[in-house]
Amino acid sequence: MMLETVDILVDIDKDDIKIHIGGGVWTDLASMFESLFKKTIADTIRDEVKSVLSTTIPQMANASIIANDGFANIVPFWWWDWESPEAAKITNETFQFSTKGLMFDNRTGEVDPGVVPPQMPAKVAENPAKLQGYISTYAIQSFATTTSSVFSESIWFNSSLVDDKGLFPTNTSTVEELLPGISKYYGPDAPVNVKISILSIQNISVSGDDQKMGAKFTAQLEFWVVVKDKGPEQAAAITLKDTDFDFTALIQNMTLGM
Question: 20 to 30 A Cα–Cα from 67, which one of 96, 171, 207, 239?
Fold first, then answer.
């Protein structure tokens, strides 16, 4: 992929340029040549803009593309191997372009997500939206697989951050239904910290008929009871393996509904 400009047209109307001249006799003399000044300024600006668009920007962009060899570093360890399979399409009404690529953790190398890349549109005429963007399940699976690798840190829900009278209080009494006997062993209302680790997200799917997205995920939940005069102690760990989930997300009038 290389950036090349074609037919650069820059139109600057000299009448759009305003010149303020101050200083007695010089003002009267200079005013006689104001039109000439404007034309010279307009020509100079036009030539410089054409030079930047036709030479400077392509040179800088292509030097960057060559140096990176089609790779982009998003955050540490997270890379995107990409290319643009065809030139951007520009008409009187639209500007559209497409890219394809694979996200990967550079510590483990590129791993094919196992999803056949579909043919993707750049613009759907029946869609009234002025700004359109489409992402394939291949890209989503690549994103999901690498994020669980690059961002491997777990999420903690500590009891000290949750109101005991709130919607999701975490203590031995409230998790008793999930872990029978925990309140009897550790005592009622003992604080419980919950650690959530997303281990993998696979088999991402989308359905146009009901506008749903789904996947299988594997996650681990750890329950740590804060024992008085002792500190946190792991009471239980639950692994949800290849668990199916799906959801519908609709955006209407700039409002997201799920």
Answer: 96
In eight-state DSSP terms, residue 86 is S
d(CA 52, CA 59): 10
C-alpha of 72 from chain center: 13
Position 34 scores a pLDDT of 54
Q: What is the separation of C-alpha 201 from the centre of its chain, rounded to a whole number of angstroms?
A: 17
CA dihedral 234, 240, 241, 246 (to 10 degrees): -150
pTM above 0.90, yes or no: no
Burial of 128: CB neighbours in 10 Å, binned 0-12, 13-18, 19+:
exposed
- Please answer whether residues 201 and 225 qualify as being in contact, where contact means their C-beta atoms are separated by less than 8 angstroms: no
Rounded distance between C-alpha atoms, residue 38 and residue 18, angstroms: 8
Domains of the chain: 1-69 (no CATH), 70-146 (no CATH), 153-258 (3.15.20.10)
80, containing H or E segment: strand 78-83
| Residue whose tokens read 């409230």 | 174
User: φ, ψ for residue 69 (rounded to 5)?
Assistant: 55, 35
SS3 label, residue 225: strand
State the 10-residue block means of pLDDT for the chain, 258 residues long. Answer: 52 56 49 58 74 71 70 85 76 75 86 78 80 82 80 79 62 88 91 88 73 81 90 90 74 52
Cβ proximity of 247 and 213 under 8 Å = yes
* 46: CB partners within 8 A, 6+ apart: 10, 11, 12
